[in-house]
Queue: 3 jobs
Job 1
Amino acid sequence: MMKCEIILHINGERRSAVIRQADTLLMVIRYLGLTGAKPGCLNGDCGACTVLVNDTPIKSCMMLAIETVGQEITTIEGLRDTAIQRAFVEQFAFQCGYCTPGFVMNAYALTTQKPDADEETIRKWLESNICRCTSYHEIEQAVRSVLAQKKR
Amino acid sequence: MIPFDVAYYRPSTIEEAVQLFSSLEAKGKRPLYYGGGTEFITLARLGRAFADAVIDLKSLPECRILSVTAHELTFGAAVSLTAIEEANSFPLLTKAAREVADRTARNQITLGGNICGRIFYHEAVLPFLLADSRVVIAGKEGINERSIHEVFQQYMHLSPSQFLVQVKVDAAYSNLPHAHTKRRQQGNTGYPLVTVAALKKDGKLRVAFSGVCPFPFRSLEIEERLNRTLPLGARIASVIEALPSPVLDDIEGSAKYRLFVLKHALLDVITALEGES
Ligand SMILES: Cc1cc2nc3c(=O)[nH]c(=O)nc-3n(C[C@H](O)[C@H](O)[C@@H](O)COP(=O)(O)OP(=O)(O)OC[C@H]3O[C@@H](n4cnc5c(N)ncnc54)[C@H](O)[C@@H]3O)c2cc1C
Ligand code: FES
Ligand code: FES
């Protein structure tokens, strides 16, 4: 097996990992103990594995870890007491919680980068994630509540 | 997990990328050009794609261009579908791109990957077929610009050592009346049952399809039938008779259902454009 050492910038820290070049980013961050990003479909469909790469939401099951060398990776562990996290709690936007880290990462990017997002934009962004417990209404409410706070 | 080893390369010039391909091949390796990686990674995990080296095109400046001049729009093959949507320089392409997969996936899926990949819908190619675009291709023979119609016939006819660098469109196409509709089996993401894209140029309709047959297409015969002076229903019936292959019949939808959906999609697209001058 071809292994190599890489340095990743995750949540503001430099982390070293010995990887196969064929390893996905999802596998590597979980191997580093950052287990917030979840394996779901591993097929790009569910969004449970969503992290930010240079602030852009990415499905980490569909990206090689080695591609992200030199880029800034943010996982759910890197978000602390943000408005969207509080809104998820206040709006009861989860049940089992498996999809939550992926949804939060996507919703965090949406609410910070598109503060003027209209309903169509919210719908388009949130379509990237699946919630088997069908908390969709509450998740949308959480997003809307953060956007409303920003507009105040 | 990808069940085999892959070496990752990220060249910074076109020449380096082509050279890398040749030298890896000469060493008995099976290299593959790599855009967003979404298709390669998902198919490799299932044992349906193999490469022992990938050559990432995302650092090639020519592949990252997204430019507009008075005469021409240029779309780099390594630009993501999201970037194309946000630039909105060719509104019909924006509409086609923003219906592929979902927003997060589109942050990664590249134009080149959508057009050249193995998943056969290639929805982003439809506007380029309608706009008689030109494609810039790099390979061992150097860099060449060709009509998209020569290269894209059901799929991109590239040799393994060639890759798509850019797609170019005359700027005049960006302002033409157009319509686009994508009908899925269910939900708002995922593959089409039927996608129809249309442009109106010099008073004539042009149409291209994905999901109807096992390849995307634009057909001059279909356009001739669509532009006849006959009632709309008769024209649509005549179009159905001229489809280039049997209609897709798979788990997404039976052939009969796809035909039903196609008729309605065509009706909507034509109705939207017939009033336009
Ligand atoms: C979750 C998901 C949903 C999808 N939904 C849709 C959909 O609704 N509609 C639709 O049309 N498609 C859809 N697709 C297919 C998709 O658009 C393509 O398969 C895309 O994923 C490939 O883009 P990529 O940049 O990630 O390509 P990669 O995975 O990097 O490459 C895919 C293939 O294309 C080749 N390639 C990539 N770039 C170039 C280039 N510049 N020149 C030559 N060859 C190149 C590679 O060698 C490889 O064989 C979907 C894919 C996924 C994963
Ligand atoms: S695990 Fe990545 S999209 Fe489902
Ligand atoms: S809360 Fe259970 S999957 Fe979403």
Job 2
Amino acid sequence: MDIVKTFFNGPVFLESLPLLLTGLWVTVQLGVASIIAGLIVGLVVALLRIYGPPPAAVPAKIYIDVFRSIPILVLLILVYYALPFVGIRLSSFWAAWMALTLVSGAYTAEIFRAGIEAIPRGQFEASHALGLGYRHMMVDVILPQAVRIVIPPLTNNCINVIKDTALASVVAMPDLLKQATQAQALAANPTPLIGAALIYIILLWPLVALVSRLERKFKAGTR
Amino acid sequence: MAPFISIRGVGKSYDTFKALEGIDLDIAEGEVVCIIGPSGSGKSTLVRCVNLLEQYGPGEISVGGIPVRAGKELAAVRAEVGMVFQSFNLFPHLSVKRNVMLAPMRTRRLDEKTAEARAMALIKRVGIAEQADKYPGQLSGGQQQRVAIARALAMEPKALLFDEPTSALDPEMVGEVLDVMRALAHTGVTMIVVTHEMGFARQVADRVVVMVEGRIIESGTPDEVFDHPKQQRTQDFLKAVLAH
């Protein structure tokens, strides 16, 4: 049995491909749903953290710190296996979605906070002094600068979320990795795992390249 | 004639520290007032109160008869009063031209063509027409500060506040900014200039105000203040800054 036949077995790969693609579709759905929810949670939490009164800002800070500290796998197992004891029973998809959203939201909140706080006070003062209203100040001056700062780390976070969807296979969600291990068992050959790895790379490489490009562009751009 | 800018009994404190205390200052339309004094004497704080970048209290400041207070009329005050900062505070993501065009387009509802024509005229006036399409980060400090002056002028303000406009500049660039300010002083715009440039104050100011420890200790024509200072502390300050 040579290496090619074991790990790069063409017929096995083709046979497992339909299964892998259904897994990919689940992975993409879970990734996108978690990223979108994480962005919303993150923006709200960041604004509460920066501008909220203490009763809102303190819980926001605690949320951020706790969910950046807990391993996603631990959180996922808690959500999936422990919540049923208090009567909350989530499907594997929604349990994974919840765990990923909670963690992604915490990271996203920190990214937004850093982005907004990185805008020097002088930019706000110059806008005030020119008589720009709050809306114009945010839309024309503050947010365009904040977005430049925030997009590369946000894209990095998206990459992490999509990679972390693979953890959902632990709670039996039929994502890309789960389907690959299934196919591997069926074919008694690890080629489907290699296939899954390739699919992850094809999916994420463009995003990784995009981050590098944006970082270079914004660095070279205006300053 | 009623003063254009009126500052009456203005104070400001941080906890127990009094940044400003009992400031009275009336400035007529078209007058050029230079505020001098040691650092930490409250000069910057005072000009920043005039367009309410700093809150103040007690006391009352009014510009063109409008009280400077948080609320609806604040926009009217800020439209009348331009400001030039020590650290320029240009918008780094906009070109020089766009920096100058932004506020008139948003607050005066100028269309793009008119705003651009006016911006170009102002950029030419401060002597950097060939830099109009560059970004602030590509300009020298002196050029950036001249853009900042053009940006303030674009709102056609009746008064301009200068908060140490040359303090962040390399020495060889101070002159080009002072030249622009000197030319402005002759156009009839009211100017309050916080500065360490004694030569400029002596030449250009109608009135020089000396601040120490949050109070105005002396004010008068450049002749009176520089050549015949009445207060010991003014003499000490002048001796210290003119020594080198």
Job 3
Amino acid sequence: MNVVNFNERACERYRRYFDSYLDNELLVETNQDVLQHLNSCTECTRILEGRARMKQLVKNAVTAQSAPPELVTAVRAQLHTERPGFFGFNSARWMMAAAAVLLVAIVGIGTLQWTRFAQFSGDDGVFQTVSDRVQGILRVGLVDHVHCVILAQQWKRFVSFDEMKANTRPSALGPEFIDLVPVVESKLGSQYKLVLGHRCVVNEREYIHFILTGDKGILLSLVITKKKNTETVNESFAQADAEAVVRASGIPIYREHQGILEVAGFESDKYLAYIVSNLDRDRNLNVASVLAPLVYDHLHKLEI
Amino acid sequence: MHLVRDRTEAHDLVQEAYLQAWKAFHRFEPGTNCRAWLFKILINEVRHYRRRWFNTKIVPETEQSFEETLAFEPPVAENIQDEDVLAALDEVPRDFREVVLLSDVQEFSYKEIAEMLGIPVGTVMSRLSRGRKQLRMKLATYAAASGLGRKPQEGAYERG
């Protein structure tokens, strides 16, 4: 005589949903059914926890690999010699195409097989001028520029100073940062036009973001964000082991080059600030040097 | 994408993929998912490469491996290293591995993966389920062989 264990059958039915449950792909009702079953079944809870851990292990193992610098260099060199069809050389869209392609090169390349074999020689200069820690801190600003300017194309929106002041939504700069708008505009002169100043959230991190446009498809961001300092993360240029490339009124400025994007970063006690653009190295550093003292003073006042 | 076993080929392949994306950027529709679009190009390049060089054996959707037929789900060993995970991944059939990587690492939705690979969402789900299951079993085998954690059959005693 066969003995049918009804509980095990129920478990088998719910376990079929576990992968979709972990990937957040279930309908709300099914999700609730699974949760209800988990509340009363320790074996299924153990299995689900194991699967969640496995998913994380796969992600950690693959993303721990980073692209060999020679590959990034080769891709960049190839893109420099080729022109995408359809666009003029100096158009902003051409710049965005390059940035978008390289963005994926930066963030998605960990899944590629060859990275397992790569041992960095640091012979090209892509990664050699800044330590990994400084590079990580600089990317905090780069990510916001890529998100709002390159992918969301917010540089196309022009919002006047009066509209920014009148904004009461969560995206408003607010009294803390609205005064930076005329200061930045007057400091940079007619060469750049400030098209938008807003607060935005990328990867659960809040940014104060000023977007400027210039001649010949130049897109430039002034990005400010609060430092995160925890037991495992210490976002401070000063405590990272690389040297500043220039100093503006005594403020050290660090830089990194990613594809066609230049990032220059500096810091106050509690904030990180960045200039990100498709300018060349010297011109981007020049903008950072011009803005760093006044931005630093502004942030310092907020910290007092 | 953990799908090409030769480093030099992989280098060439990724350069070609980025070049294709670069040239075809005018076909990208603003407002759609840029990452998904670029990954689709990468995947097409990988497939093109495979067609040129290999007669790869594809596991039919209906054919289950021996590991998949085992009902017991072993616990995940405590001290698994990245190398173990990567080695186990390499042993998972390519079609399943592809979906596992796109979901677990790149965190694309099932719908996005289906569009990228040109397969139904149901196939994405079954490949993902089978890929993850094979991965779990392979890692349990590694763990048992290297003395990490408990052997699958030891874990079975806890079921009662």
